[in-house]
């Protein structure tokens, strides 16, 4: 298992290019299952989760090719599907595999998808995906760890999910594009990745109203086709936020290229409250941090409020900030796995239910720590960048799931960080 070795204490200076959004790429690659025509996506990040998705698609018989001149351009051809089953061995490594359920059922009337099972950050059931597809007329049985779904043709329905669910909205949205009649998704998630998926689906011929709102109205069509021009995936707002937090913690002056500040309002507001200068540009964000940040309290929520996927990274900033911050996690019941590892680096954090109370201290001290999930890994990297001495972050396969060459990008802006293959 690879590790990262970080020697902390350097400020960050220079430029970083942000990759395409993981959480848009995964549903959009699965959306290619909705049509027999080849779908080309641009700005696909080079991530483990993307290669896992391509493996899931390959298992179904969909081929994919990366443009030899630009590896971030990927074409998926789902014209000759040979299976409608996503098996446990792949789904267990990436929950987002559940995103093949809606498209397979809508186009082929049958799907067999492994239940994803537990996850380090919470129990994460998929009952709302199932409830919505049932409302659209699907017959669904859950047996032997698999969701078996069939439908002659899905029928439009009015669906109100019990809570806001991102992949749930995506699955139902994709399914509804090929259903008979009108579907209304109430309480839909409004994350920028959903809007990007809507844009892709509309470019494929889907009829969708309510883009960017919590009420999506979909008029099902008989068939979808390839977009006329390759769809360009939006920048990864969580990668962007992670670099913003890294600079806030270490100090420095960094420009993030191909970033979109409008997707990160809540995080940027909090960074400004911490005393960090954040200057959005046309297609970039400059971040300047010249002094120790001030501790900032926040609570996670659905978009456009503070994203749970930035909670761990911002907590790392609070660890070395001046003052005391309360960090409340409201989306996932167990998303504080990074706390004990941050404490190993000297942080003063006490957890009380869903709230972590972080008392900032001037310096962390390097140690060996273990990554437990994707964003926990990123928080440990940030903490390692400001810790005195050497920090080793173990089990970084979690980090590789969702960050495109993170250590290479950090090294380019002055961090002392290297990958130790293991
Ligand atoms: C691939 C992807 O896009 N992943 C993101 C997606 O995950 P994901 O789509 O899995 O997260 P959801 O939005 O579905 O989860 C929100 C909450 O709803 C609960 N729930 C969800 C569905 C369901 O059927 N039943 C149920 O109880 C979950 O356990 C959780 O407590 O949104 C999360 C919340 O912004 C992010 O942290 C993930 O990075
Ligand atoms: C929780 C995340 O991803 P996933 O839903 O794929 O586990 C994440 O991106 O932070």
What fold name stands as the CATH topology of the largest domain? UDP-n-acetylglucosamine1-carboxyvinyl-transferase, Chain
Instruction: Enumerate how many helices there are, as a single number.
Output: 14
**Any low-confidence stretches, pLDDT <50, length ≥5?**
none
Biggest β-sheet: strands ordered side by side in the sheet: 23-25-1-26
Give the oligomer, counting copies of the same chain as homo and different chains as hetero. Answer: single chain
- Cα shape: globular
What's the CATH C level of the largest domain? Answer: Alpha Beta
Account of the 3D structure:
Helix 1 packs parallel to helix 7 (192-203). The longest helix has 14 residues, at 237-250. The protein has a four-stranded mixed sheet with strand order 23-25-1-26. It has a four-stranded mixed sheet with strand order 2-15-17-16. It is globular, with a radius of gyration of 21 Å. It is 32% helix and 27% strand. The protein folds into two domains: 3-18 and 235-420, Alpha-beta prism (UDP-n-acetylglucosamine1-carboxyvinyl-transferase, Chain), CATH 3.65.10; 22-232, Alpha-beta prism (UDP-n-acetylglucosamine1-carboxyvinyl-transferase, Chain), CATH 3.65.10. With 422 residues, the chain is an alpha/beta fold. The structure holds uridine-diphosphate-N-acetylglucosamine and phosphoenolpyruvate. Phosphoenolpyruvate (PEP) binds at residues 23, 95-96, 309, 374-375, 402. Phosphoenolpyruvate binds at residues 22-23. The modification 2-(S-cysteinyl)pyruvic acid O-phosphothioketal is found at residue 119. The active site is at 119 (proton donor).
């Amino acid at each position: 298992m690879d590790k990262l070795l970080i020697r902390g204490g350097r400020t960050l200076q220079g430029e970083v290019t942000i990759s395409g959004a993981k959480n848009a790429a995964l549903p959009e690659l699965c959306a290619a299952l909705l049509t027999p025509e080849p779908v080309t996506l641009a700005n696909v990040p080079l991530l483990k989760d993307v290669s896992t998705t391509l493996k899931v698609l390959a298992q179904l018989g969909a081929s994919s090719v990366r443009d030899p001149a630009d590896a971030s351009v990927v074409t998926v051809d789902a014209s000759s599907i040979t299976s409608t089953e996503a098996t446990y061995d792949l789904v267990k490594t990436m929950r987002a595999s559940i995103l093949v359920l809606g498209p397979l059922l809508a186009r082929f009337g049958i799907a067999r998808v492994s239940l994803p099972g537990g996850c380090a950050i919470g129990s994460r059931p998929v009952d709302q995906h199932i409830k919505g597809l049932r409302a659209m007329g699907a017959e669904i049985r859950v047996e032997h760890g698999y969701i078996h779904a069939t439908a002659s043709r899905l029928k439009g329905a009015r669906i109100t999910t019990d809570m806001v669910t991102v992949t749930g909205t995506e699955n139902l949205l994709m399914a509804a594009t090929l259903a008979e009649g009108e579907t209304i998704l109430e309480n839909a998630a409004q994350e920028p990745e959903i809007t990007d998926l809507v844009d892709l689906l509309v470019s494929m011929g889907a009829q969708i109203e309510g883009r960017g709102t919590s009420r999506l109205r979909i008029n099902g069509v008989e068939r979808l086709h390839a977009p006329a021009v390759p769809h360009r995936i939006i920048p990864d707002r969580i990668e962007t936020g992670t670099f913003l937090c890294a600079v806030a913690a270490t100090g420095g002056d960094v420009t993030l290229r191909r970033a979109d500040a409008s997707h990160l309002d809540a995080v940027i507001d909090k960074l400004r409250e911490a005393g960090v200068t954040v200057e959005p540009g046309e297609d970039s964000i400059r971040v300047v941090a010249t002094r120790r940040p001030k501790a900032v309290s926040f609570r996670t929520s659905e978009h456009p409020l503070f994203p749970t996927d930035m909670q761990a990274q911002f907590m790392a900033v609070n660890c070395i900030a001046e003052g005391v911050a309360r960090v409340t996690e409201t989306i996932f019941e167990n998303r504080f796995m990074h706390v004990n590892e941050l404490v190993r680096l000297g942080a003063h954090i006490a957890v009380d239910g869903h709230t972590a109370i972080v008392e900032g201290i001037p310096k962390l001290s390097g140690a060996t720590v273990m990554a437990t999930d994707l964003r926990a890994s990123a928080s440990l990297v940030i903490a390692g960048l400001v810790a005195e001495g050497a920090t080793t972050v173990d089990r970084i396969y979690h980090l590789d799931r969702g960050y495109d060459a993170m250590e290479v990008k950090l090294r380019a802006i002055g961090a002392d960080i290297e990958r130790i293959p293991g």
